[in-house]
Here is the input.
Amino acid sequence: KRGGDPDRPPWTTEPPPPPPPPPPPPLYTGWTWPPGCCPYYRTSYKRRAKNFTDAGGDGSIYRPLYDEMERRLSLADRALTEASSTAASTGAPTTAKTGATSAAAAAAAAAAAAAAATSS
Here is the structure.
């Protein structure tokens, strides 16, 4: 009987699994702004910061990254889709960007639906 790893057969053609990757280096938090510099959003360009990644903006090359982050971070899952469908069927207004109903519009739609249900 051969010694070694009891979980692997003694005769195998497969290489051992690779070791786990090393942990990532810690984030560097000691960075300071160079003299005479400040963040983009603190300058006279602040108004442009709201549309930084829009077409023609200084950061338009970052738009695909922005869209991906927005998609991954948004709560636009089943609940949002259902709320949008409900709003569309009840005539409640939705926001242009996400199709989500505002809280007031959702409450008004629910009240109208309840009133219609009790009056029938």
About this structure: Helices lie at 46-49, 63-73, 78-90, 103-119. Confidence is low (pLDDT under 50) at residues 96-101. Residues 40-72 form one domain. Residues 24 and 44 are 37 Å apart (CA to CA).
